[in-house]
Specification:
The chain has nine helices and no strands. Helix content is about 70%, strand content about 0%. Belongs to the peptidase M50B family.
C-alpha cells in the first residue's frame, strides 16, 4: 500500500491511542482525589485537548512522539503512593486493554485485512492494535519522563533514593540517546523490549494477521 495512504490511515489510530492514554491518567487521578485534570478541561475524549503538535508530527515522521501531559497534583491524592502508582499505570494499561478488541476484530474478520476493498479498514484496525501496544510498552520503560519511572520511584526502597535523583536529572537525555542509538545503529535496545511485546501480544490478540 502507498506510504502516503498508510500515513493517512495511521492518523486516527495514533490520535485514539494518545487520547485514551491521557484521559486514563486524568480519570484515575480524579478518582484518587485529584481534580486538577478535570479543572483543566482534560477529562475529555476530544483529541484536540490532548494533542501536542510537535509530538504528533514526531510520531508521523520518526515513529515516536508524545502527547500533552495531563496535569496532576499528587498531594491531592487520598493515598499518595497508591495515587501515583495507579495514575501512572492507567495510561499504559488503557492502551493495552484497547489493543485487545482491535486485535480480536482482525482475528474474527480476517477479510478486513485480506480483502482489497476492505483493506483500509483492516489497516486502521492493525495500526490501532500496534500503536496501542507500542504506547503501552514504551511508557512502561522506567526512565523519566515515562510512566514506568513513576512506578519505579514509588516502589524503590528509601535507600535507593539516589537512583531516582539521578534518573530525574539525566533520564530524559538517556531516553533520547537510546532512541537515536536504536535508530542509527540498528541495535534494538529499546526495541528489544517493545518489539517482542508488540509481537507476542499482537499474535495473541490478532492471530495470524501480519503486524507492522
Amino acid at each position: 500500500m502507498n506510504l502516503l495512504i498508510v500515513y493517512i490511515l495511521s492518523l486516527p489510530p495514533i490520535l485514539f491511542a494518545l487520547t485514551i492514554h491521557e484521559y486514563a491518567h486524568g480519570y484515575v487521578a480524579y478518582r484518587m482525589g485529584d481534580p486538577t485534570a478535570k479543572f483543566a478541561g482534560r477529562l475529555t475524549l476530544n483529541p484536540l485537548k490532548h494533542i501536542d503538535l510537535f509530538g504528533f508530527l514526531a510520531f508521523l515522521i520518526f515513529r515516536f512522539g508524545w502527547a500533552k501531559p495531563v496535569p496532576i497534583q499528587p498531594y491531592n491524592f487520598t493515598n499518595f503512593k497508591k495515587g501515583i502508582l495507579y495514575t501512572s499505570l492507567a495510561g499504559p494499561l488503557s492502551n493495552f486493554l484497547f489493543a485487545i478488541p482491535f486485535g480480536l476484530l482482525l482475528r474474527a474478520f480476517p477479510a478486513l485485512y485480506y480483502n482489497n476493498l476492505l483493506l483500509p479498514i483492516g489497516m486502521m484496525l492493525q495500526l490501532a492494535l500496534v500503536y496501542n501496544l507500542i504506547f503501552c510498552a514504551f511508557n512502561l520503560i522506567p526512565i523519566p519522563p515515562l510512566d514506568g519511572s513513576k512506578v519505579l520511584f514509588v516502589l524503590l526502597p528509601p535507600e535507593y533514593r539516589h537512583i531516582e535523583l539521578w534518573l530525574e536529572r539525566y533520564g530524559f537525555m538517556v531516553l533520547i540517546g537510546l532512541i537515536f542509538f536504536d535508530r542509527i545503529t540498528g541495535i534494538p535496545i529499546l526495541w528489544g523490549w517493545i518489539g517482542p511485546f508488540v509481537s507476542i501480544f499482537g499474535r495473541i490478540f490478532a492471530g495470524s494477521i501480519p503486524l507492522l
